[in-house]
Write a structure and sequence with these properties.
Blueprint: H1 10-24, H2 29-53, H3 56-63, H4 66-86, H5 88-94, H6 97-107, H7 114-122, H8 127-157, H9 164-184, H10 186-195, H11 197-221, H12 230-257, H13 262-272, H14 277-287, H15 293-327
Helix pairs in contact: 1-11, 2-9, 2-10, 2-11, 3-8, 4-6, 4-8, 4-12, 4-13, 6-8, 6-15, 7-8, 7-13, 7-15, 8-9, 8-13, 9-14, 11-14, 11-15, 12-13, 12-15, 14-15
Length: 328
């Protein structure tokens, strides 16, 4: 039987199921402690596998395209945060302060790696540059995102005593060290990973589902659904759509104005307008210790699904135009 077009992908359905399970059966006490430990192990394993998968040759092949990488990094860590601040008068009318905090968190996150490269490939963009740019964004985000959180989000929240250095150290231990270990051991384990592609997918999705379940369990215990009015939830959807649309338009027309060719434009659009759920949720565990994480990552989950749907359509349109140009 063919899958209905209106039905979300399996991972989205599993995310929804995780939220539902946390709402009905939230983990508490020692079970919550055990789940948190399991989640940290899964996250570290995920980044270890990502490090082992990343080809240094492909990354170096795209590294020389420095203008493209600067533009992607500027869009990710400068334009996006600035946009989140400039739109505050509008966003504040649509969502609660806690949800706006979650929207600001989206704005300071690194670009996603896997889907950026995948969509660039489908659209016939510059794949080596996409590998380099998305990977660099993810690694640089380990250091920049905590600093931006301290500069923007904690000031907005009015929290005191935020230690960016400690946050960076925790994220380095949880994400960067396993990634570097994967790079070091790549020559011995890469062929095994290639023979077991489902392993990375299971670890990738499983770690995110574990974080979502534990985060929403804590939020539900603290009264999440009593703090989240339906109009505010709809407001988050509108805000995510506005952010994504503006960033896609900015990256598209800026790349054309700066003289990039079509392949580079595709790479800039897909790497510069997307945000990483795989990095964002684990980072939230460290950066928002003591905050209602479930409520804060909800905008990121919605933005993630929206960007996947929009980019899938856009990638097909790019591919169609390029095919048409080649045959004409």
């Amino acid at each position: 039987m063919r899958r209905p077009r209106f039905l979300p992908d399996n991972f989205t359905l599993m995310l929804i199921a995780s939220v539902a399970l946390a709402s009905l059966l939230p983990c508490r006490g020692q079970v919550a402690i055990d789940f948190n430990l399991l989640t940290n192990i899964a996250i570290s394993l995920l980044f270890f596998l990502h490090g082992a998968k990343l080809s240094r040759e492909a990354a170096l092949a795209g590294f020389t395209h420095w203008r493209l990488h600067l533009m992607v990094l500027a869009a990710t860590f400068a334009v996006f945060p600035l946009l989140g601040l400039l739109l505050k008068p509008v966003l504040g009318l649509l969502v609660t302060p806690a949800l706006y905090l979650g929207v600001l968190y989206i704005c300071v996150l690194p670009s996603t790696v896997q889907s950026s490269i995948a969509f660039t490939s489908v659209a016939h963009g510059n794949i080596p540059a996409a590998v380099c740019s998305a990977s660099a964004s993810s690694l640089i985000g380990i250091f920049i995102t905590p600093i931006l959180v301290g500069m923007m989000i904690m000031q907005h929240d009015g929290s005191a005593g935020y230690d960016a250095g400690h946050a960076v150290l925790q994220i380095v231990i949880l994400l960067l060290i396993p990634f570097l270990a994967g790079q070091v051991l790549r020559r011995w384990i890469f062929s095994w990973i290639q023979r077991h592609p489902k392993l990375v997918k299971v670890v990738d999705q499983g770690s995110i589902l574990l974080v979502v379940y534990t985060a929403f369990s804590e939020a539900v215990i603290e009264g999440l659904w009593h703090q989240l009015p339906i109009p505010a939830l709809l407001g988050v959807l509108v805000i995510c759509a506005i952010l994504l649309a503006i960033m896609m338009l900015l990256t598209t027309y800026a790349s054309r104005w700066l003289g990039f060719d079509k392949a580079d434009e595709i790479t800039i659009v897909f790497c510069g307008s997307k945000k990483s759920l795989a990095s964002g949720i684990p980072m939230a565990k460290v950066l928002f210790l003591g905050h209602p994480i479930g409520l804060l990552v909800l905008p990121l989950m919605l933005f993630h699904q929206l960007q996947l749907m929009v980019c899938a359509v856009l990638a097909q349109r790019y591919a169609g135009r390029i095919k048409s140009d080649r045959t004409s």
